Amino acid sequence: MAAINYKGLQHAEKSSERALWFASLSIFLTAVGLFFAIKQTNLTEIQSTSERINQARSVQSAIEFCEQNPESQDSGLFEISSGKSAPCAQVIRNYKTEKSLLEKIRGIFNF
Fold first, then answer.
1. Strands of the chain, DSSP E
2. Distance separating alpha carbons of residues 58 and 77, to the nearest angstrom
3. pLDDT (tens digit, 9 = 90+) per residue, 57-81?
4. Cα–Cα distance for residue pair 44/61, rounded to 1 Å
5. What are phi and psi of 97, to 5 degrees?
6. More confident: 48 or 96
7. Distance between CA atoms of residues 35 and 49, nearest Å
8. DSSP code of 73?
9. Alpha-carbon gap, residue 103 to 105, rounded angstroms
């Protein structure tokens, strides 16, 4: 009877060692995957910086154009949902900057 229990304990110990080894391997591979995911995210952010700068320039150019031509139907920007050119009225409405208190006072008193 003792020999059977000993073999059972030995088998359980071996199974526990395998499970611990597998868990350690899983943790290691998860850490490696996380490292590369973070690295890829950082590289993607760096790569997209120039595109974000170009988009900001396009928006600024459209705002300047639309301030000079508020009735124009072609602002140079395109709506994401339809792909059509956004009219200047929409560009001004969407990108209008809040005036400072001093600018508001000047507007009231016209000076």
1. none
2. 7
3. 888 888 889 888 888 888 888 888 8
4. 26
5. -90, 145
6. 48
7. 22
8. S
9. 5
Distance CA(83)–CA(74), nearest Å, equals 12
Q: pTM (2 decimals)?
A: 0.51
Structure tokens at 24: 């350690």
What is the C-alpha end-to-end distance of the chain, expressed in Å?
A: 105
Contacts of 19 (CB under 8 A, 6+ apart): none
Tokens describing residue 86: 């956004």
| Contact yes or no for 78/59 (Cβ under 8 A) | no
- For the chain, how big is the Rg over CA atoms in Å? 32
Dist CA 59 CA 67 (whole Å): 12
Q: For residue 35, which amino acid is it?
A: F
Identify whether the C-beta of residue 92 lies closer than 8 Å to the C-beta of residue 64: no
